[in-house]
Amino acid sequence: MAKIKVKTKTTEQTLETIMMNCRNALRGTIGGNEKNRDAVLGLVFLKFAGFKFENRRAEIIEQYGDVPAFLEKKSFYLSENVFFLNETSRWSHIEINASANDIAVIIDTAMRDIEDGNPPLKGALPQNFYVTLGTRPEQLKALIDEINKIDDKRFHESDLIGRVYEYFLQVFAIDSGTSNEKGEFYTPASIVQLIAELIEPYSGVVYDPCCGSAGMFVSSIKFVERHNGNRSKISVVGQERNPDTWRLAKMNLAIRGIAHNLGERPESTFAEDLNKGKMVDFIMANPPFNLKLGAQGVAQDNMNSDPRWDGYTPPPVSNANYAWILHMLSKLDVTNGIAGFLLANGALNADGVEGEIRKGLIENDKIEAIIVLPREMFYSTDISVTFWILNNNKNARILNGRQLRDRRGEVLFVDLRRWNDNIYEKKYVQFSDEQIDNIKKIYTSWQTGVDYQDVPELCRSATKDEIKAQKYSLAPSKYIEFIDHDMEIDYAREMARIQSEMREVLRAEKKAQSMLEVAFRGIGYGIDQK
Prior knowledge:
Blueprint: H1 15-25, H2 32-64, H3 68-71, H4 74-78, H5 91-96, H6 103-117, H7 137-148, H8 160-175, H9 179-185, H10 189-199, E1 204-208, H11 215-226, E2 234-238, H12 243-255, E3 260-261, E4 282-285, H13 300-304, H14 321-331, E5 338-344, H15 352-363, E6 367-372, E7 385-391, E8 397-399, E9 402-404, E10 410-415, E11 423-424, E12 428-429, H16 433-448, E13 459-463, H17 464-469, H18 491-529
Parallel strand pairs: 1-2, 1-4, 2-3, 4-5, 6-10
Antiparallel strand pairs: 5-7, 6-7, 8-9, 10-13, 11-12
Helix pairs in contact: 1-7, 2-7, 2-8, 2-12, 8-9, 10-11, 10-16
């Protein structure tokens, strides 16, 4: 009897499903969320480093033939921002040995060899990490199997590497058990995109003094590519104090082939500025909110003599918000430098020493725009925060093909707190591309003077005199017109309507009461007759 072939339905897994499986592969291990994050991202790095190596190797064979002298020439790879990998460091070797009992040792060996053979990766890759992770071999195999499914032939993404890396940075930030870690190493992508779109880093040096996992740098490169620019005209410079986050940043940039200088070691910007004297064209940053400099061992005496505060009152060690502002201002090119950064809303109205610094910034015409963002955009806090733009050149000039007007003595205020309808991951808010475009239109139309107008409850251009009259507050609510919607109510008409409704209710209640009394009298009469 002939066998009947039963057709089985296969379900094609989406990229999101595969990445979710990777995320879940190590759940419940003793390593904890932070170690699991590093375990996943380390293997993602090996996967895509191997992918780029094999692609470059194929190009060399096509150009020079299958000649070992060329195939093993490291400069042929490094010149194209591709890391040279020996045979046991390639993803194919990891994949073949995924079921081995010593797979953790094999992965650690690959990490060590890659770092030793590629100087730009010095200190970036986890060392002796997987053998101490506390996972079983079958868990690592499950993770390797899932990561192996992420392939450019299967998923035709223009930036598959970036998509995968950003996914894991984001979800592990959301899952993180402590708010400090969540806030420090990842800034939501839509906010970073907004900063890049407004400051437009087409060419020059981009600096981030607290770079986290390097999202600002990646976004600056994406901005250039999105607008058909030349990424080779951008260089990125910065530093990061957290050793684990510093390694994440170097891996993030390396896997995308972005040349960078994050210093030879992780270091606090305030404890030791690794870029003393360096001036930059653009700054993109998300400093830790309300950081206490005193807790980092920065003494007030050192703060008072620091040249970064020249011309301003030295900031307090109790709160670093204005120390970050003055540090970034000191790095900006004095002719055309522009900075876009985030701060807690408290900095808009802070008094005392901070108020004196803010007054100086306004009087010196350094502030171009203040944009308040919606709540629930950050994993570390649910508060609304502010996007500041500093600009050393608010004069009339041509910039990126637009004729800008003279904006000296003016500041643009924008309030986006009600732009909170685009929700993901159940509660977090992000900007859509359309919203980012609309914000950019407000900003550029204000810069050019073409089609700009103040909009109640959204934006307003305020003069220095108006700001001075508000005691140098930068809270947008002091300047943007807010409509009292209660004033739109016709109270006389509303009261007449309510009174009419109440009379109808009372009549209905009186009628119902009468019916009940009649009913009860009838019941009582019947009982008495018995």
